[in-house]
Specification:
Blueprint (H helix, E strand, L loop, with lengths): L1 H22 L4 H22 L13 H31 L8 H24 L6 H15 L4
């Protein structure tokens, strides 16, 4: 059995390496975004399990809604992948080996702000007080990275 686990771990590590290469490596923004995605998903499930969700009519957990949440997070990662590939194209278009991270950074910061805002909303639904300046700062960061002006 150990032989199979060792083989599984090797293949998994290889797959993760390939995917990380497509993204242009594992950056601080990537770590923050993935961490916030996990916390948002868990806090959203906690909201639903305690009957405070706004995603269902009853406010309770529904597996289809949970699956759609995971699907949305996968699509966010697809958008980040597209942004990373655009950055690579811009870097190679200049003829040099400069590391362009314009699109990826913009997408990561937008989704970091969105995930952080969602976490604060979930906390608020569960009765955790949210400091108004924090909420306003997250909304401003999200809107700034989306190109919206108020």
């Amino acid at each position: 059995m150990e032989k199979y686990w060792g083989e599984i771990v090797r293949w998994l590590a290889a797959a993760i390496g390939v995917i990380a290469g497509w993204y242009g490596g594992w950056t601080a923004g990537s770590r923050v975004l993935v961490t916030l995605m996990v916390v948002d998903y868990v806090s959203g499930c906690a909201c639903a399990l305690t009957g405070h969700s706004t995603k269902t009519e009853t406010g309770h957990f529904w597996s289809q809604v949970a699956f759609l949440g995971l699907l949305k997070k996968a699509l966010v990662m697809a958008v980040i992948l597209v942004a990373a590939q655009l950055d690579k194209a811009l870097g190679s278009a200049g003829g040099g080996s400069e590391n362009v991270v314009m699109f990826r950074s913009a997408a990561e910061f937008f989704y970091i702000a969105t995930e952080a805002l969602s976490i604060t909303e979930n906390a608020g639904l569960m009765g955790v007080p949210i400091p108004k300046p924090l909420r306003k700062a997250l909304e401003a960061l999200r809107d700034k990275n989306d190109g919206e002006e108020e």
